[in-house]
Amino acid sequence: MPITVDRSSQIQLALINQETEPLHMAVLVISSNGDISTAYPYMLEASIDEALVSANQERILSFEFNIRKTPGQFELMLIASRKPLNKFLKAVETIVRSRGDIKRGDPITLRENEPLDVMTDLLEDVDRISRDVRVHTGKRVIDRSQVCALSTIIRVV
Fold first, then answer.
1. Taking each helix axis from N to C terminus, what angle separates 114-129 and 86-98, rounded to the nearest 10 degrees?
2. Which SS3 state, helix, strand or coil, does residue 38 take?
3. Count of domains in the chain?
4. pLDDT tens digits along 105-116
5. Could you report the per-residue pLDDT of 137-154, keeping only the tens digit for each?
6. 32 falls within a domain
7. Measured between alpha carbons, how far is 140 from 87 in angstroms, rounded to an integer?
8. How far from the centroid of its chain's Cα atoms is residue 58's Cα?
9. Alpha helices, DSSP H only, in the chain?
10. What is the pLDDT of residues 19-71, one digit of tens each?
11. What's the sign of the alpha-carbon dihedral 48, 50, 52, 55?
12. Residue 7 is part of which domain span?
């Protein structure tokens, strides 16, 4: 069931790690037309460790949602992992560095083939994190104790 918000609302996200160990986190915003933006982490001249949220830590995101321009609905996807999402984060960092007009905390809107490339890198990270887990057919599975994804649909009215 989507969360419904009024166009005049402001949305602020807080990442709260209630685990007993640090988690590497990423937040993606997927628009109704399929555009993808990264809401977290912000990789401008930061290390890969910026995605690390310590145990029992809360991190308020500076990502600002301009929902007045958002038609219909969008999806927020959180990825949390016990191990770094290095390939995904390096891909995001490369995109940010290739653009001179992005300030720290700005959403990174992916263009052309970038969404496919970034999602491929994310899936490769998930595969690497779950590498040792196999079912009897030899196919890879995701180790839910190592990585998870949560999705929320926001409907703007």
1. 160
2. strand
3. 1
4. 556 677 788 878
5. 556 566 677 888 888 998
6. yes
7. 19
8. 16
9. 86-98, 114-129
10. 999 998 888 888 777 777 777 776 544 556 777 899 999 988 866 666 666 56
11. positive
12. 3-133+143-156
